[in-house]
Design a protein that fits this description.
It is a single chain. This protein is 6% helix and 32% strand. The chain has 877 residues and is mainly beta. β39 (653-656) and β40 form a beta hairpin. It is globular and about 75 Å long. The two termini are 51 Å apart. Residues 1-69 have low confidence and may be disordered.
Length: 877
């Protein structure tokens, strides 16, 4: 795309669960579309700049022709993230619980982890306004994705994150404290305060997105203002373990849970006793059922929400259905004691299975009005602009419902999403919230990609939280201003909402892919209907940043070290040694990262599908490239597999251990370039090996010119295959290693290599997924860490006492030890030992990558939900 539309999406990696592949590409998704990533296109910055932009460098022009459809890419990324943890089969419930128990029982090393990203992260940092940055969009301080929010009338706010647990504020937002660190799941699906002030937590994020994890059930906290969740506070037995929880609703002395395994209920009077299965459309597909091991089992009983009539709690409506469509999708109520599909009398709200997908309900405090958002599987498959069927209102949960908004109406009411191919509700299967002002049944907040408000029951709408400000006349890239003359907005992609009071004033709190924001419930708007009073609550005391990668190098300008990393939907963070606030120098999703140990401002960052950007000045820029393209200092250097979509969503990128100027990238091909950070064009990459049609690299590593590449293809459960190829960076000696399905290396996703820097033939392999005890799939095998002494020709399982937990990466420490990152923390095998220890004490958070400091004395861990942590290597063993 042209330079005026160069901003990259805060791409939400949508996809799912780690123990039961709940993710699938929505019907009609087009993973093979011509361009590998779709940027949320900016409207033209200004007509007078178009001609300048058309003459821009090849770096900017490389993005021309982008089709702009992010929703397809999100779904594909979702599927790929799940594949790594589920292929070659379906994973049985309880796998993560058992892994967490096993890890906690391991002997623990000395030392303590230190969080280095527990300070504000300014997505609009004026230092970094280069061509590939989203700085000046208007989101301000951000953190990781928030899945649910709850708030009371005394200033207590509770934020449930996607992968970093639940946090509490006593001051109406900000000054946060974690309150769920001891739970075996840090993934939040739902938060709700009941009438007596107890806080209910449903674990397992239910957005069915690429990096969401299953939960360990529902917990209740009697004194949420002072206490913390513990495993003893779980409600019921293990009925809801390894599910996701979409909503928790209360009525008739019961708490109702809409889950990935149907609708369940439990008494609110006591946490004891089993959950009752109220309704599952296909119970044979539930654990223990005749079809529990079917490939589609995870999609057959998905429930989204429950509407309960407060005047008669026996009157209940269930919204049930998989976002991509199934014959059971629809609304259900009890008729003569049996749950029955509603087929008529609903008015405008569809009841046909093709038109009922992800649904969210809301009710006014007085019970006089009900509202609903409905995502349509048919529209998601057929309409490139939006999957939103509509927003509806009724006097009763049984209707008749009246449509009060569709995507075209919302787009016309101040939205930033007015471009064909990406309009309001295009990700309605992922982005939804809905709430009603307790003091006014006609005052409603609705969340999709943006935040919308109506004060007249849906007659008129305002986009109070636009996607970003780039498309508006008030926007400017001027570093003296956060976002020109526009007011701050929220981050995009909405998931949670609550209304509470603090110091006698009412506020609405929203949770999204950038954290938590608030504004007065009856706040002010400008002439365009955009709110003028949003405040970010991401003050640095809450660190739920979801890193895929980390890079460390010397800070030549200030001394010390510079730390950077790629994030889910929050670009690339940069932390210089003298920083009090982190900045963002690349936008969109940040994938893998390379950083020159000798110069921390030499950075290569992968977006998605091997869309690699490089900078040699930390992408410091005042935005002058807008009028003078020659002043851009970030360069698109993607290998050719990026253009042909023959790379994983988060594709592997590595530097040779002996030469930081030799890089290896993996798609269908193994790519090598030898110009280091001075590379300026994708044409400088050379394909040294073709892995083969249908195969894509999952991990690469190199030392002294010897290259290892792991691949899968097919990568899903149907015919899953994996392998290893070995050769040299100069293109010679390439061959496939024989890995039989029943051999030493399991037939599961190969996620990382660690090469011994003293001997390139000595290499370790990290294997994802679960072993055959949990996985019903051909060749699932056992073990997670393997060692080769002959350059990958033969392998030995060295997992020993390591619990059965997905492993993500590994690294050899300078003393010859081996550190391994898992979905639940870090483990270490000391030199000369054969058994494993748990490194320090982290919450149950996924660690996706490990790196060493330039002097090798400090280990850096990129966690996917709690930021970046460090520990001294000497404390690991």
């Amino acid at each position: 795309m042209s330079a005026p539309t160069r901003k990259r999406r805060w791409l939400t990696i949508c996809a799912l669960t780690a123990t039961a592949a709940l993710v699938a590409t929505p019907a009609g998704a087009r993973p093979d579309r011509g361009r590998p990533f779709g940027s949320r296109t900016l409207a033209q910055l200004a007509a007078q700049r178009t001609q300048l932009a058309e003459s821009m460098s090849p770096k900017a022009k490389a993005e021309d022709g982008d089709d702009g459809n992010e929703a397809d890419e999100i779904a594909e990324g979702a599927q790929q993230y799940a594949e790594a943890r589920t292929s070659p089969g379906i994973v049985a419930p309880g796998a993560y619980g058992a892994a967490w128990t096993g890890l906690r029982n391991l002997p623990r090393t000395g030392g303590n982890w230190r969080n280095v990203t527990d300070l504000p992260y300014n997505s609009d940092d004026p230092r970094y306004r280069d061509v590939d940055s989203n700085s000046s969009g208007g989101s301000g301080n951000v953190t990781g994705r928030m899945a649910a929010i709850a708030a009371d009338d005394d200033g207590y706010v509770y934020a449930g994150s996607a992968g970093g647990g639940v946090w509490r504020s006593r001051r109406g937002g900000g000054h946060w404290t974690p309150i769920s660190d001891t739970l075996p799941s840090q993934s939040t699906g739902a938060l709700a305060l009941d009438g007596s002030g107890r806080l209910w937590l449903g674990t397992g994020e239910a957005t069915t997105n690429a990096d969401a994890y299953l939960g360990s059930g529902v917990y209740v906290l009697s004194d949420p203002r002072h206490g913390a969740f513990s495993s003893r506070s779980r409600v019921g037995g293990d009925e809801l373990e390894s599910t996701t929880v979409h909503e928790l609703r209360f009525g008739g002395g019961k708490v109702w849970a809409a889950t990935s395994a149907g609708v369940w209920s439990h008494s609110t009077k006591t946490p004891k006793g089993a959950w009752k299965l109220e309704y599952a459309p296909h119970p044979d597909y539930l654990p223990g059922g005749a079809k529990a091991n079917d490939d589609s089992a995870a999609y057959k009983n998905i429930a989204n929400d429950i509407a309960i009539d407060p005047k008669d709690p026996s009157k209940v409506v269930l919204a049930v259905g998989w976002r991509s469509g199934d014959d059971y999708n629809g609304f259900y109520t009890k008729v003569h004691g049996a749950w029955t599909r509603i087929t008529d009398g609903f008015g405008d709200l569809p009841t046909d299975a093709d038109d009922v997908g992800n649904v969210t309900f809301a009710r006014s405090a007085d019970g006089s009005r009900y509202y609903a958002i409905d995502q349509s599987p048919e529209l998601t498959a057929s309409n490139p602009d939006s999957g939103l069927e509509g927003v509806y209102s009724a006097a009763s949960p049984f209707g008749p419902w009246t449509k009060i908004a569709d995507y075209k109406q919302l787009a016309a009411d101040g939205s930033a999403l007015t471009t064909a191919g990406y309009m309001p509700g295009v990700q309605a299967w992922y982005n939804q919230f809905l709430t009603v002002d307790p003091s006014d049944p006609k005052h409603v907040y609705a969340g999709l990609e943006e935040v919308y408000e109506t004060k007249d029951g849906g007659g008129t709408w305002s986009t109070v939280g636009p996607y970003w400000n780039f498309t508006f006349p008030c926007w400017s890239i001027d570093p003296a201003k956060q976002t020109g003359d526009c007011h701050q907005t929220t981050h995009s992609d909405q998931h949670g909402v609550a209304i509470g009071r603090y110091h006698g004033k009412s506020f609405v709190y929203v949770g999204n892919d950038g954290g938590v924001y608030k504004r007065p419930v009856n706040g002010s708007q400008d002439a365009s209907g955009h709110a003028t009073d949003w405040a970010s609550l991401n003050d640095g005391t809450i660190d739920t940043l979801q890193y895929y990668s980390v890079g460390v190098g010397k800070d030549l300008d200030h001394g010390g070290l510079s730390v950077t990393g790629g994030l889910q939907d929050n670009g690339q963070s940069v932390l210089r040694s003298n920083d009090k606030v982190m900045g963002s120098d690349f936008g969109g999703d940040g994938g893998d990262t390379l950083t020159d140990p000798a110069n921390g401002c030499d950075i290569a960052e992968e977006y998605v599908y091997l869309a690699v950007q490089v900078t040699q000045n930390c992408a410091v820029n005042d935005g002058s490239w807008v009028t003078d393209p020659s002043k851009a200092t970030s360069y698109n250097v993607a290998p050719a597999d990026n253009a042909t979509s023959e790379a994983r969503f988060i594709a592997p990128l590595a530097a040779d251990l002996k030469s930081s100027s030799t890089w290896i990238a993996g798609g269908r091909h193994v790519w090598v370039q030898t110009h280091g950070y001075a590379i300026r064009s994708g044409a400088e990459w050379k394909s040294v090996y073709d892995l083969g049609a249908g195969r894509t690299a999952t991990a690469v590593a190199a030392s002294g010119g010897k290259v290892y590449a792991a691949w899968c293809g097919p990568c899903n459960n149907q015919g899953f295959a994996r392998g290893i190829s070995v050769g040299n960076a100069d293109g010679t000696g390439w061959h496939d290693v024989t890995l039989p399905v029943g051999g030493a290396v399991p037939n599961r996703y190969l996620s990382g290599f660690a090469v011994d820097p003293k001997n390139a033939d000595h290499v370790f392999l990290a294997v994802n997924g679960f072993s055959r005890h949990w996985t019903e799939g051909p060749g699932a095998g056992v073990g997670h860490v393997f060692e080769s002494l002959d350059g990958g020709t033969t392998w030995k399982d060295i997992s020993a006492n390591l619990p059965d937990v997905p492993t993500d990466s590994a690294i050899v420490t300078p003393n010859g030890g081996l550190a391994v990152a898992t979905d639940l923390g870090v483990v270490y095998r000391a030199p000369g030992r054969t058994t494993w220890q748990r490194v320090g004490s982290l919450p149950a958070v996924a660690v996706l990558q490990l790196k060493l400091s330039p002097d090798g004395k400090t280990l850096y861990a990129a966690t996917h939900g709690r930021g970046i942590y460090t520990i001294r290597v000497r404390d690991c063993g």
